[in-house]
Amino acid sequence: MSKEPEFSRVLVKLSGEALMGNQGFGITPEMIHYVAEEIANVYRLNVQVCIVVGGGNIFRGVAGSSAGMDRTSADNMGMLATVINSLALCDALEKCDVPTRVQSAIPMDRIAEPFIRRKAIRHLEKGRVVIFAAGTGNPYFTTDTAAVLRAHEMRADILFKATQVDGVYDRDPVVHEDATMFDELSYMRILEKQLHVMDMTAISLAMEHDLPVQVFDLHKEGNILKAVTGHHIGTRIYNK
Description:
Order of helices and strands: EHEHHEEHEHEEEEHHEHE
CATH superfamily: Acetylglutamate kinase-like
Mean pLDDT: 93
Number of strands: 11
Number of domains: 1
């Protein structure tokens, strides 16, 4: 496998569920160590890496809202869950000798830096991984939208969505055995077919700013490295 990176600056979007392993809730030490090592392997290629991590392993705002909770309160709780995950991932990366900073969209100076775009870019230029916590800092926006927003603000070459599935399918592969995975997709086709890749706000924002997105399975060892070095895995989404 080629070790020459295709991209110089990337944003990796991780689902919170990816950190809980098989235990169904919270953070599994083995899983967060695995994720940190996967990112460290990319960092060692001198690729600038920034990260957005979800909070679904602790609390999902949409789920709280559907259970009768006020949506703003539920989303605020979800954003705080992403801070917990970000701090845990920061610790795991530091243990892999990867200098890391957490920047939060919700000010909490005792535990994280506030999000300051120029400072985040400077961290990347100095060889630090930057984790963006607390989503956009606003309710009603998902961490997928936050990932696209931060990727654009950081001028990332591509957004990698490392998730629980190996790509984007025409229908649910769990329910339909004959579901077909796409190698490539246009943003417009995703919007037209209402494919469940990211929420429509995130897809529209990525399309508007011509940000390519690659969706692949986080649980296959080496996949992030393969994506960074230009190997075709998962599904690539871009303007056609």
